[in-house]
Amino acid sequence: MISKNQYDAIIVGAGFSGMYMLHRLRSLNLKVRVIEKAEDVGGTWYWNRYPGARCDVPSMEYSYSFSDQLQQDWDWTEVMAAQPEILTYAGEVADRFDLRSDIQFETNVLSVVYNDESRSWILETDGPEAFEATYCIMATGCLSVPNTPDISGAANFKGDIYHTGSWPHEGVDFTGLTVGIIGTGSSGTQSIPVIAQEAKHLTVFQRTPNYTMPAHNQPLSDSFRNDAKANYADIRKQQRESMVGIIGYGYGFGGATTEEPTESILDTSREERDHLVETLGFDSIQRFIDIGVDMGANELACDMYRSQLGKVVKDQETAQGLMPQNYPIGCKRPVIDTQYFETFNRDNVTLVDLRKGGIEQITTSGIKTEQGQFEFDVLVYATGFDAMTGALLAMNIQGKDGIKLSDTWDAGPRSYLGLQVHGYPNLFTITGPGSPSVLSNMMVSIEQHVDWIFDCISYMKDNNYDLIEASGKAEADWITHVNEVAEGTMFTVSSCHSWYLGANIPGKPRIFMPYVGGVGLYREKCDAIVKNDYEGFNFA
Ligand code: FAD
Ligand code: N01
Predict the structure, then answer these.
(1) How far apart, in Å, are the Cα atoms of 245 and each of 167, 168, 228, 437?
(2) What kind of architecture, by CATH, is found in domain 3-145+386-539?
(3) Which ligand 1 atom sits closest to the C-alpha of 442?
(4) Rounded to two decimals, what is the model's pTM?
(5) What is the chain's mean pLDDT, rounded?
(6) Domain ranges of the chain
């Protein structure tokens, strides 16, 4: 017999979103439970333990700002910390605020159903218990459902198979082994140089080459840390008001330069561009203001990029194979790397450019492509995630009158502000589709959403409301706005096949999911809606 545990609020997920949401709701004296399928906190940083995993936003900025004591006490060791350090940080936050006592680990939420009569959400899990709550807050992550492509013959492979998005805790020792890796997005680009150093041989199966920029990661000095800590109030304020939640304090974007781009690439001559590539390498394209807004400018930058790639990679056939073609810089999530292209100069690394002939099947001992058979002992998928909607749709959410989220989102996700979906009262999504989310430093977006939801529930308590629902009109108007601002940007050009558009998952509706207006502007809009008595939301 399943017992029902009654709560004021259930939060699903114990990554950075769920942990902070729990901390805030506790202060309202609500009865709150977090349900998390992992064995511990950390979310992304719990699951993605692949070699080379690290953040690509400076850690002084990719960290919680809600507790000044925490940000003063914590010392990041590098500009962009590696996964073990970020996971330790998540553990420290859980200890410091005693979060684990209200988190139920190793429990997977399988269904989330609204009961119209009791006006509550019923959550069923893979455990013996079910849960009932007035509020249900989805902190399930934008990149938490690994995508394993359906390649024929995969079950026949005799060796070990790993996915970067659910890496074994004990690590993998590649010493003496031949390895095949599929995928050259951020996860592949980070792991390939590290695996290559350990493995006997690494074969990289690349379907689409990426534009990746040097990370320039480095250790942080005490003086830099102290200086940043002394200025934290100002840094955090600037982050919140910025476009993407990053100001690049002290190191600029990717550590390449702290100077704002000022020049137009269209005003430069061929000779000037060649000279810039010669002297600054890949960093040369960071100085231009127009490559993100003008297709002609973008093409010139792509040429500079390919020219530098041809200098770094010695074998010219391999260099050609690594060169992105026919889609603009900036339409996909930026990738930064440490010694990625240099890795292809190693004798033990082979590039298989799948543009010359794709994968036919996985065999018992490797991968058969239209170009021939490649043999290896171990297979690694670095093939990404069912992003933004994957975790939400996996929970079989049913709203008012039994309507299913999978039907509501049949043609792509719909939401008001990325915070609520019409027809699903009292259900909130942290960094949901329709909010800046993955186009930003996620920590800034997470904290903003958690604070907004906290304020909203406080307001409801103060006004004796027990139900909030986004109106259909507000939702429709918001989606129109989200689409309008995305139109004409690099993100939506037809040559771009990004996971922002759902293009990485066969059959997924192609629709641009995040809000491109910027975190500063978005925050202003959310605040204005609150000031206007929660315009677009109905209370009961
Ligand atoms: P997550 O960390 O994804 O946590 C969601 C949690 O929900 C998970 O623990 C999951 O197990 C749990 N969950 C999901 N479904 C269920 C269910 N049905 N039942 C129970 N539990 C469930 N962002 C940046 O801004 N900067 C970076 O540098 C950066 N680096 C990244 C590097 C990698 C390798 C990846 C994959 C992502 C990176 N991101 C980065 C994005 C990152 O996901 C966010 O920054 C942030 O960690 C998300 O936190 P979250 O709590 O919202 O989601
Ligand atoms: O996933 P991806 P990811 N056959 O989707 C290829 C965050 N993140 O895990 O481009 C052959 O970007 C696919 O090829 P193609 C960050 O937000 C951050 O790398 O579809 N190849 C692509 O090369 C990031 O954007 C960090 O043609 C197949 C790769 O697999 C997001 O997570 C680190 C294939 C998938 O790339 C996702 O990154 C890691 C097939 N059937 C992740 N299917 C930081 O550094 C897929 N591919 C902060």
Answers:
(1) 28, 31, 16, 10
(2) 3-Layer(bba) Sandwich (3.50)
(3) 25
(4) 0.98
(5) 96
(6) 3-145+386-539, 154-381
